[in-house]
Amino acid sequence: MDSSLPQTRAARQALNRGPLVEPAVLAADLAAIAVAAGKTGEARAEVVQVLKRRLAEARRIAEERLIATSDGRGCAEALSHFQDEVIRALSGWIMDQLYPSENPSSGERMAIVATGGYGRGMLAPGSDIDLLFLLPYKQTAWGESVAEAMLYCLWDMGLKVGHATRSVDECIRQARTDFTIRTALLEARYILGDAQLFGELEKRFDAEVVRDTVPEFVAAKLAERDERHRKTGQSRYLVEPNVKDGKGGLRDLHTLFWIARYAYRVKTDEELAKKGVFTRREAQMFRRCETFLWTVRCHLHFLTGRSEERLSFDLQRELAPRLGYRGHNGLVDVERFMKHYFLIAKDVGDLTAILCAELEERHEKPAPVLDRFIARLRPKSRRGFKESPDFQIDHDRITVADDQAFARDPVNLIRMFWLADRYNLAFHPDAIRLLTRSLKLVDDKLRNDPAANQLFLSILTSANTPEIVLRRMNEAGLLGRFVPDFGRVVAMMQFNMYHHYTVDEHLLRCIGILQQIERGGDPGLGLAADLVKTIQPRNRDLLYVALFLHDIAKGRPEDHSTAGAKIARKLCPRFGLNALETETVAWLVEQHLVMSTIAQSRDLAERKTIETFANVVQSLERMKLMLILTTADIMAVGPGVWNGWKSQLLRTLYYETEPVVTGGFSEVNRSRRVEIAQEEFRRAVPERLPALSGDALETYIGRHYAAYWLKVDLATKIEHARFLKQAEDEGRSLATRIELVPGQGVIHLTVLAPDHPRLLSIIAGACAATGANIVGAQIYTTTDGLALDTISITRAFDRDEDEERRAGRIADAIEKALRGEMKVGEAVAAVAKKSPARHRSRTFRIAPDVAINNTWSTRYTVIEVSGLDRPGLLHDLTSALSRHSLNIASAYVATFGERAVDVFYVTDLMGAKIQSAQRQTAIRKVLTGVLEEEAGR
């Protein structure tokens, strides 16, 4: 953080002390506005204008203080205090000028109460205001008029106001049955009016609602939290987190405090320490987390001018310098900011776990187990373990026998997690607290202790719950201490749109995915689930180690794969691996991107492609390990990244390479595999497509080249055959087919058209013109001159019927473009100007790269283009290639977040490679210009 800002809490509080606008000023402003006869509307409008000006002034001052102090909690408290004064001044003016009551009856009593978030006494710049107009028993004409006048004034000021008008009896009755109302009243705060009435509400709420209902309230709030997490993303390490509702965000702190306030009847976080729920240090942690999250949230609202809660990439880039972060130690400012954010989110999770454990002690919620989906035998003793007398079981949670357990034997720091995994036990908060205080015991002696490393390796390769236990070790701060190289990537975000999680979270998710692959049973796991059963037993453990280490060198100046291999060669002997095992792990780490890259961006029907990959893997066993690791790595990137298309590409690469590494490449082997694929197709056709038979079937088989039979899965081949036969029966040489793929986040759109050099460019342009984002493409040509191109497009709607209508519009646009009824270039340019994706050019910086290679293929020149993705990019690239008289034989389109990587296999119009250095330079120049076009705009 910027050292010029106030560093101490006292200094920040001093700067924030004092109202944003003096209450006397507000009162004087409104007192000067008298209501002339018949001029009520004009007076009210004048009041609104005065208050709007004061509100703008208050927010300006609040923002200036926030930038100077980074004290979001103080900013939220000041804004709430100002809002109180607005309501007091406005209420006073309404009751004096509009609806005076000289001799109020017993029914003309009212208390104005802040509820919900506003009731906590903290208000973000764009937050709603929740008000309760509290009445003694029923609404009166006077009370209705006052409430209505106040609400209209607040609304006219541009404020979002939630409101309710209820008697005390109504509040109690509704709070008993509605947990939302109960939670809002839990934080009710008196602003003005009849204080005795508010006191009655508080007293009755405690006696008639809260008493004896703690368990049901806790259960309801935790269920509500879980559902919120499900909607916003289950991980607190999502790289575009929701500051309010995301896991580890402000709402989690609020839920924690609601539960604590309800169960322990406290009003401040300091009182939780006095009650013994939190230690003094934990109470300070609560305050620190709350202040940081409020700081981020208030900045978000000020920066965007609205109630924005999602910390998107573009806002992260703007917020980091605004909060005082600077690049340091290999991390840019935004990465340092987000690392701090994720560490805070982790602390929020720790505090929630501590409170839940305390509630379990009180039997206010069910005690957990480490994993509810596995059943483990408990130790026969309910008190101790035969493996170690230093640990005991307390209500199905592991805890220490005494506070010297770790000091007596530092290996116990690791042993506790090993026991928890072995017996499926949750952790007692006292044990976690003692462990946190004992982290200084983790030194080089412990790191190199054979027993500690053996226990750690057992946890990492466990068949039980390795991901869960490792995550708990990470959250407790032990994992990064015991493996310092892992500690460097804790809470480290990768500032790109491809990776959904922080580096450490991705590595731990990889461990969980590998365990899923081992358990099998899910066809979506692809070939990996079959191969994992065939690898050598010891290599199974090496896979876990390699996945744990494969991205451990992220954030370093050198290539992370190369640096990761060096770290593996250092750590593996420490973990107890021998020289051969160490080299296998290091090789997997160093080469962990190779299979994915080749599968997605190379022609797998090319002999050169397969030979190149075979030279990398060299053995069947290594290739099996690489495919399993690649599958887990892709699946752990985030939802929707892994799909059936990628699974099929990996499968094809594996089976194409298998004969090379087992007995040498031969065209005979390849021809035999083509025959096997064709025979499989023949056997499937009678049942799935009986209309295709006899000579027609053999003619159809002859229409496809060998590459098609080897690269396309059987189900897709059948659908292609049905599609082509229908088009032929209808006499059409131009047709489209739509396929919605469940669970993949994409749709597949297949186009049948006469082949010509600009075909892919026109298809890509039509897609861009309709706002469709192409994330993959597979191009095949039939022997009779037709192109069968399948493009994968990102879904836009959750409901299939909505997506089908959208896909239909895209397909219509493609057919119109191919018939010449659409000016594709103009349509693409118009859409690109309006596309929200253009903000990427301001948020992300990717240096354009164009590689032209004549050694990757025996027949084609391979052009690999990498740069910032944008609408119409594929159209522009393919158009540029066509203008340079290049014929695109095949194309491989991949999108990794904001980065597009497109590979084209091309020849000149005579079918020859591009050998001329001068012509290669011209192609490279024009493609680089296309990539830089958006920056030029």
From TrEMBL:
GO MF term set: [glutamate-ammonia-ligase] adenylyltransferase activity; [protein-PII] uridylyltransferase activity; phosphoric diester hydrolase activity
Enzyme Commission code(s) on record: 2.7.7.59, 3.1.4.-
Keyword Transferase on entry: yes
Cofactors: Mg(2+)
Domain annotation ACT: ranges: 748-829, 862-937
Region (Uridylyltransferase): 1-386
Keyword line: Hydrolase, Magnesium, Multifunctional enzyme, Nucleotidyltransferase, Repeat, Transferase
Reactions the enzyme catalyzes: [protein-PII]-uridylyl-L-tyrosine + H2O = [protein-PII]-L-tyrosine + UMP + H(+); [protein-PII]-L-tyrosine + UTP = [protein-PII]-uridylyl-L-tyrosine + diphosphate
Activity regulation, per record: Uridylyltransferase (UTase) activity is inhibited by glutamine, while glutamine activates uridylyl-removing (UR) activity.
GO biological process assignments: regulation of nitrogen utilization
The HD domain, residue ranges: 503-626
UniProt cross-references to PROSITE patterns, sorted A to Z: ACT, HD
Domain description: Has four distinct domains: an N-terminal nucleotidyltransferase (NT) domain responsible for UTase activity, a central HD domain that encodes UR activity, and two C-terminal ACT domains that seem to have a role in glutamine sensing.
Primary role: Modifies, by uridylylation and deuridylylation, the PII regulatory proteins (GlnB and homologs), in response to the nitrogen status of the cell that GlnD senses through the glutamine level. Under low glutamine levels, catalyzes the conversion of the PII proteins and UTP to PII-UMP and PPi, while under higher glutamine levels, GlnD hydrolyzes PII-UMP to PII and UMP (deuridylylation). Thus, controls uridylylation state and activity of the PII proteins, and plays an important role in the regulation of nitrogen metabolism.
Family membership: Belongs to the GlnD family.
Protein's UniProt name: Bifunctional uridylyltransferase/uridylyl-removing enzyme
Organism: Phreatobacter cathodiphilus
